[in-house]
Amino acid sequence: MKVILTENIEKVGNKGDVINVKRGFARNYLVPRNFAIYATPQNLKKLDSLKKQFADEESKRIEQLKQVAANLAGLNLEFIRKVDEHESMYGSVSEMDVMHELKEKNVDIPKAAILMEKHIKQLGDFEIPIRLHKEVTASLKIKVSKEQTEKDKTESEDSITEQEETKPAEPAVEAEQVEEQLSEDKE
What we know:
By secondary structure, the protein is α+β, with helices and mostly antiparallel strands. Among the domains are: 2-45, Ribosomal protein L9, N-terminal domain (Ribosomal Protein L9, domain 1); 71-146, Ribosomal Protein L9, domain 2. The protein has 6 helices and 6 strands. The protein has helices spanning 23-30, 41-45, 47-73, 95-104, 150-166, 170-186, and strands at 2-5, 18-20, 36-38, 76-81, 124-131, 137-146. A 3-stranded antiparallel sheet has the order 2-1-3, with no helix packed on it. The longest helix is centred in the N-terminal third of the chain and has 27 residues, at 47-73. The chain is elongated.
């Protein structure tokens, strides 16, 4: 059965293509979801105008996606995860985590657009490619850092108090200078 695609479908075809598919695929999937229309003689006559319309829509969509890609390039996401004493993460950062974090920043991207080979299971900085369209890809910077535990907090507080103890008593020096000035003024 011949149909005219009204949407780009991966591994099937692009908008405006006349393709031959099985009847069940056309009847049960493509046509009900408005991904295709039947290739009737009337629709085939309209094909040129449909292709022009599709090309205009596609160019507008690409421009919008390029703006989204520019916004993504400026974003830095940070994920905080628990680690053990050997700096091994208990969990990982997945596509869903990235998608939810982007939604919090008002950027709506489908999970399929986030191209991660594997989930991130180590601390550090990473760049993840995001494919918004076959012609538009962006790179998103992600930082995975460890969660501060009570032990880390007390160690940082101890180091702060040690730094305070090792500092010279500057106010006392200033007080001596003030006293010297006062005594010089009295003389």
